DNA sequence: GATGAATGAGACTTCATTCAT
DNA sequence: TATGAATGAAGTCTCATTCAT
């Protein structure tokens, strides 16, 4: 039943099918509530085959986490355009992050929700990925500080906290964008960028951060199709990298 | 077994003991991995009594969520000192929030991690609490905007996103403070306050937000026992309401 | 809760309340599915009191069976008018039987359904009652045979079988009357009387049995309010006891 | 354990083994008192396999009822010889009925006792079967009435009652034959046939019904191996179909 | 006379996992 | 490569029954 008799596929392909199914089921049910039966059925194979290839429920979950963690970091890494200023890099990284999470909601749930919920071992897997991202953000913050000619003004531990806050805000907005109708990845990124870079204080005194020109696809920059966050093009000095 | 034979307690007391045990077990294992056996044992009663009083695993979990959600919101509500400026209120609220989560790590895990992980019904329970907090933050942001004489400058939806980001950052910092040795609630609050109010941009140009005078306990403000975040007492205008 | 605080009743009264509740619950749920909790609640007392007075679930069930079996046999015994001919006695006994079962459906279910379903010991209790009734019917049949001047024409074992059949038919009709709207006890009795006394053969050749005059309550015998079974008053010789 | 290790049987076979065991246990203990453990053990398999194949205790019970109800109706249907007169058909049907119930006492208990005792849904399952049999009997009675040239002499509702009485008597006799040493299916059938067709009145005046010639197995009809009920071959007019 | 508090035992059900083919 | 057949272990929940007051 299911997909009929699509038998005899090469191992690598079958494995990916299984992981696809597993990510979906794990993402929707959580680790414990997911059953190997359901995963095998969704993958269109028999349960013993899942065990033959992936060994155990634990290993299967770990494999899911690894694959999706790698996919997410790669997506962000690929999204960050080198050579930009710190805020430009952050902006592009956030865009990539929100794009990826929006496109892979189950994977995002696995990483953000379920992996942290169940067991130190699984949590450690994601912790590695998260640490990598936090490190990247930390580096960006430090770089920005250098750009501002302000030597190690921010103490070590403080920067770590700031990076945590930034990443946490990003995660919450990813959840929020995923749950709220009509919020695009771009809007989420812009909101976060404003929040993080300008801060509420500046936002309220009318000095929001504004995104750089988009060289990617949009041919007509003067009419933003999706209303972005910055109502006033009064760019702050720090973000005007060409200035 | 367990605590010997502390038998025949009035129902109300026993129920609280059970909830205490349940929050602990649920917080450490998650909903599904927690077993009623373990909870009953930790509570020092037999399993049937748990069912007699709390009805089912679902109901027990819901009762935990409700009790802890109420406790957290009450703590925050009680922590926010009325009559302060917007940033003063935010600061005091954050202090209370980080204090409470630091003191009740299992409850925090139940609310933030496990309740959202398992089932729409449980998620809905916390969603109510979270919405309440988000609403409070939203209100603060709007009030601050008014204080800054900038009428509805920030569009509706945008404020919602900012509140989400702020709350998300707070949640992440609560996790982080709970997991990192040597990070106090006060530090976490200060870090977040800086991040949110001043923004990275201002932080790097040397204009951090600074907390108001603490009339509560600290008699000597010039020597902060726990090194707070604000290295330079160059208060921003908005926060210096007395000025 | 429940019936408020109707406390301090004499033991005999309380016991009957408990038996009433038990018969109702047992009758509706069966022995195993009935719970002592439910019985105690319906009786308006606490569970320990039920145990204090009736000792155990088994004993409670046995007490129900005994009380209701005695009530049924007494009702039938009281209904059979002495001095009548055999068919007159059978007719009056059936009337009493169908009346009682119709008025006490739960008791009837306990005796006929549940007591026989659960355990040799309970079955033995009803078996005694049933044997008594079967013996009575057997006696009637034998008496009728004597009246017909046909000495032991029907062999011993055969009469036992006939009595079983007659009682079985009565039981089935009691169930049927209880389940079918608009079938009165009297109709059921008449149907069975016809079936048993005349037999299908005679019924179809137009010689049904007809009930004797009713001296009890009905003042106008020419207009039967409930259409009885005998459409043709062609009484058979055997039933005309006055002849 | 049990029957050693008769492992790896095709599913269809195992299912029948499980149903066999279930009918036996259910028949002896009743629905509620039967435990899945016991059934699985008697079937020689582990409990999970029972659940894998039959899904739940409810479903297992329903499967038992369906299988046995079908078996019983088929047995009766197959036993009724077409082309016979009404009484001939009734006689052959009763023979088949008593044979089947005598040979399958547990199945009979399940259908007659336990299925009606527990839950409307189970009762409905048997009700269908019983209704089918009652309808058959009703049809026979009506056919006999036509044969006797007596047009709709018996009113509609009355025939229903008669059929109920007849079926009820059959059920009681099946129980009785099953419980009484030395009562054969044939004797039970003959007793009921006499009772129903001739009626007590005729029986006592010496005009019993007599069974038709047995073309099946008995070569010597003059010496009945099992003493049948009819002592005198004085056939009644209605039963002598050839005139 | 009456009950709130408490539990040992056992029921149904599910799941991850493995043979044997 | 792939699977139908099978199970040990564990989990949630209910129930009859008893103390201690």
Automatic annotation (TrEMBL), chains A, B, C, D:
It comes from Streptomyces ambofaciens. Residues 217-233 have a biased composition (Low complexity). It comes from the Bacteria. Keywords: DNA-binding, Transcription, Transcription regulation. Residues 12-72 form the HTH tetR-type domain. The lineage of its organism: Bacteria, Bacillati, Actinomycetota, Actinomycetes, Kitasatosporales. InterPro entries: DesT_TetR_C, Homeodomain-like_sf, HTH-type_TetR-like_transc_reg, HTH_TetR, Tet_transcr_reg_TetR-rel_C_sf. Residues 35-54 bind DNA. PANTHER family: HTH-TYPE TRANSCRIPTIONAL REGULATOR RUTR, POSSIBLE TRANSCRIPTIONAL REGULATORY PROTEIN (PROBABLY TETR-FAMILY). This is TetR family transcriptional regulator. Residues 205-243 are annotated as: Disordered. Pfam families: TetR_C_46, TetR_N.
């Amino acid at each position: 039943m299911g997909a009929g008799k699509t038998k005899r596929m090469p191992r690598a392909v079958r494995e990916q099918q299984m992981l696809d199914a597993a990510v979906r089921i794990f993402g929707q049910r959580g680790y414990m509530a997911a059953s190997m039966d359901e995963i095998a059925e969704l993958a269109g194979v028999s349960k013993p085959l899942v065990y033959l290839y992936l060994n155990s429920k634990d290993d299967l979950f770990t494999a899911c986490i690894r694959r999706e963690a790698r996919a997410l970091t790669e997506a962000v890494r690929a999204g960050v355009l080198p050579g930009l200023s710190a805020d430009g890099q952050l902006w592009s990284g956030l865009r990539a992050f929100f794009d990826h999470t929006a496109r892979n909601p189950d994977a995002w749930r696995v990483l953000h929700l379920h992996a942290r919920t169940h067991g130190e071992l699984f949590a450690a897997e994601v912790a590695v990925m998260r640490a990598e991202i936090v490190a990247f953000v930390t580096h960006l913050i430090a770089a920005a500080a250098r750009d501002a000619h302000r030597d190690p003004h921010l103490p070590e531990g403080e920067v770590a906290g700031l990076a945590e806050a930034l990443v946490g805000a990003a995660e919450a907005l990813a959840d929020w964008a995923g749950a709220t109708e009509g919020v695009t990845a771009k809007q989420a990124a812009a909101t976060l960028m404003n929040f993080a870079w300008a801060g509420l204080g500046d936002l309220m005194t009318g000095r929001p951060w504004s995104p750089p020109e988009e060289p990617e696809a949009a041919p007509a920059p003067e009419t933003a199709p999706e209303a972005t966050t910055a109502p006033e093009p009064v760019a702050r000095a720090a973000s005007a990298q060409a200035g």
